[in-house]
Amino acid sequence: MLKKLTRRVKTLITKPFKKPKKPPKPPTPAALPPPSPSPSPSPTMSPPPPQLPTKIHPFLFPNVQSTVLPDPSRFFSPNLLSSPLPTNSFFQNFTLKNGDQPEYIHPYLIKSADSSLSISYPSQFLNPSFIYQIFVPDLTVSAADKTGSAHVISSYSDLSVTLDFPSSNLRFFLVRGSPFLTCSVMGNTPISISTVHAILSFSSNSSLTKHTVRLNNGQTWLIYTSSSVSLNHDLSSIGSDGFSGIIRIAVLPGSDPMYESVLDQFSSCYPTSGEAVLTKPFCLEYKWEKKGWGDLLMLAHPLHLDILASDGCDVKVLEDFKYTSVDGELVGVVGDSWVLKPHQVSVTWHSIKGVNEESNAEIVTALAKDVEALDPSAITTTSSYFYGKLIARAARLALIAEEVGYVDVIPAIRKFLKDTIEPWLDGTFNGNGFLYESNWGGIVTRQGSADSGADFGFGVYNDHHYHIGYFLYGIAVLAKIDPAWGRRYKPQAYSLVADFMNLGRRSNSNYPRLRCFDLYKLHSWAGGLTEFADGRNQESTSEAVNAYYSAALVGLAYGDTHLVATGSTLTALEIQAAQTWWHVKEGDTIYGDEFTRENRVVGVLWANKRDSGLWFAPPDWRECRLGIQLLPILPISEVLFSDTEFTRELVNWTLPALERDGVGEGWKGFVYALESIYDKQSALEKIRNLQGHDDGNSLTNLLWWVHSRGDEHEIEHGGGGKYCWFSHYCH
Question: Which residue windows does the record flag with biased composition (Pro residues) (predicted)?
Fold first, then answer.
């Protein structure tokens, strides 16, 4: 039986060692003595020493020394080790094990190994089940006749990472979206550029600053140097005498002479790093640091192009300059600052369109039963993921009760939420709990600190936004219905938010910047500190949306407009990324025809791969593939699945799978929920006949969802979607 645990807070009152005497009562005016020429202050009237303001330190969960995390000092420069470090980044493979698995840094796959760096312009392999890019070391750059230790990460930012090879005098500026690989060579070092292909021809311009290499795989590569250098070659390698300066390498993505002309034009300006700044709500600005001269050429993926602002930034889109990518065509953009404006979304506690009042009675009947069944002592799991889902499920009941006006059940829900949340925040939960580890900088669980497989890898920073997002939903709702409780646990709530949503870059922060969210791809990654040949991955976009949505609700509960704005903006970006890369519409062109014909949703999306299977289910379990992109069902789910025609395609694609033996009732519920968007009555009958529900869902929640599907046609307008009505009046 879980007992309600009340945290006792002792207040420490500091007092002087001796209590000063009270000053004498002032005499009446008639008895005042004549003023003394040099009055002496009474010792009892000495002013107390000034009190210095107390510095408030952010709350941290108890410290733990993890036994399962890798040592970050092998690849990060010593000056970076005192700061929290990224755990789900686009370059994470460069920090794990031998650091020699490739990473996809658009448009190239990059691999560091044996004191060298290899670049691949990958071809794609695709079939109905998956798509992946094939790494082949098209060119490998190293210092001639030198061997040394592994690379060192000397700096990193939102859009870049810098790899140093100290013993080889080489520094690589790996900036995402650059059509050039840029290398700085120091110390008059001889350079070697080798290939696994055969060199068919090699030529240099008259100034010896541009060199053209044709390979027998059909590729042509251009090598630009900041000063004249004479290169020699044989069948598979190119070499130089001593050189100091900048080398830039780019593949010609097509045979049209335009490609070479564009690369020539922009070869002299190179980026060294790039930052992404959330300047205001629903606005993200890219700013690149650059050197050289001329304008900066970068590449934009399809979502960039969809939300690239035409106002507020001086950029030029080169629509015909394109590279291929597993993420769709990458298009040239000229300019060192971009402004991106996703569609606006409204973060709300309750349904967007409201519940049909005639349906309240049915919802209330289910609500009373679901609340009556709430019992903390019946919870058997100690998993941070499944426990968080149960908390969020109960919190949904409270908000539905508010919406349908059945507030009598709220005290019982409040008690359940207190009894289940407080032990995790107080550190008194039996069997697990949140702790803080300082090597990488973040929250881990007690189980995860000793077992890398526990809590789905939470202890190695996998799925943090999923697990914490569920807890934050419950905390936000409890803080809303019990503000006193919210004030008491506000430090813990913000510590949980900061674990995956810290925006700061300060070295004294406790958490890295945006642990899971990728500010170039504009969605989150899971995976944590596990090496994968295809980079980071993410399965459930809806649970990622829930994380940022729940953080925004925490902001609403505490009146924190900055947190509301940040959470809402990341929610909007995550939704549009899901609709771009996970939702596969009929006739889409991002993925090949074979994959698009067979799939309506991606199972697991990797940096370098698209997989139709799930971590827990094969591709033909389509109900799971749909459900994992919808759960948990929330008001924001309406925005995620705002494309009614695609939703119909997805449900029709999924329904035949429900005829398979052994399909779980919980997964059926998610299919019917989406069906209700376009066929409410049919879905409602199916939901009423369900014999069970997902552990994070309930009959109450499904009925609320169906009965809040509006029948009216919403007004569409550019930029804001159909969920921010005031933007109708802002244009």
Answer: 25-52
Q: What is the pLDDT of residue 722?
A: 59
Phi, psi of 176 (to 5 degrees): -65, 130
Positions of the chain with pLDDT under 50: 1-46, 713-720
**Cα atoms found within 13 Å of the Cα of residue 43, Cβ hemisphere only:** 3
Place of tokens 């090598």: 223
What angle (nearest 5°) sits at the alpha carbon of residue 361, between those of residues 357 and 363?
90
* Count of CA atoms in the C-beta half-sphere (13 A) of 375: 7
- Neighbouring CB atoms inside 10 A of 245's CB total 15
Q: For 365-504, list the strands marked E by DSSP.
A: 434-437, 442-445
Tokens at residue 503, please? Answer: 């925006």
> In this structure, what is the dihedral angle of CA atoms 310, 311, 317, 323, given to the nearest 10 degrees?
-70
Exposure string of 314-350, with b = 16+ CB inside 10 Å and e = fewer, is ebebbeebbbbbbbbbbbbbbbbebbbbbbbbbbbee
Tell me what pLDDT residue 56 has: 67
Say which residues have a Cβ less than 8 Å from residue 204's Cβ, sequence separation at least 6: 210, 211, 212, 230, 231
Q: Of the candidates 376, 358, 355, 342, which has an alpha carbon nearest to the alpha carbon of residue 575?
A: 342
Predicted TM-score (pTM) above 0.85? yes
Q: Do 270 and 231 touch, CB atoms closer than 8 A? A: no
CA-wise closest residue to 174 among 186, 161, 191: 161
- How high is the pLDDT of residue 631? 98
Q: Cβ(316)–Cβ(694) under 8 Å?
A: no
Across the chain, which distance is largest between two alpha carbons, in Å?
A: 114
Contact 439, 66 (CB under 8 A): yes
Q: What tokens does 210 get?
A: 């541009």
Q: Contact 396/404 with Cβ under 8 angstroms?
A: no
Distance CA 674, CA 682 (A): 11
Decide: helix, strand or coil at residue 412.
Answer: helix
Cα–Cα dist 433/431, whole Å:
7
Q: Are 433 and 492 in contact (CB under 8 A)?
A: no
d(CA 255, CA 466): 45
Counting Cβ atoms within 10 Å, is residue 644 exposed (0-12), middle (13-18) or buried (19+)?
exposed
Single out the residue of 422, 376, 374 nearest to residue 398, CA to CA.
374
Burial of 233 (0-12, 13-18, 19+ CB in 10 A): middle
Question: Which strands form 130-134's sheet, in the order they lie side by side?
Answer: 123-126, 130-134, 609-611, 604-606, 537-538
Cα–Cα distance measured from residue 79 to residue 60, given in angstroms and rounded to the nearest whole number: 24
CB of 510 closer than 8 Å to CB of 497 = no
Could you list the active site residues?
A: 463, 539, 543
Cβ-Cβ contacts under 8 Å for 688 (sequence gap 6 or more): none
| Per-residue pLDDT, 228 | 98
- Pairwise CA distance, residues 446 & 443, whole Å: 10
Q: Which amino acid is at 412?
A: A
Fill in the DSSP letter of residue 80.
G
Q: Which residue has the tokens 């000397």?
A: 154
How many CA within 13 A on the CB side of residue 306? 16
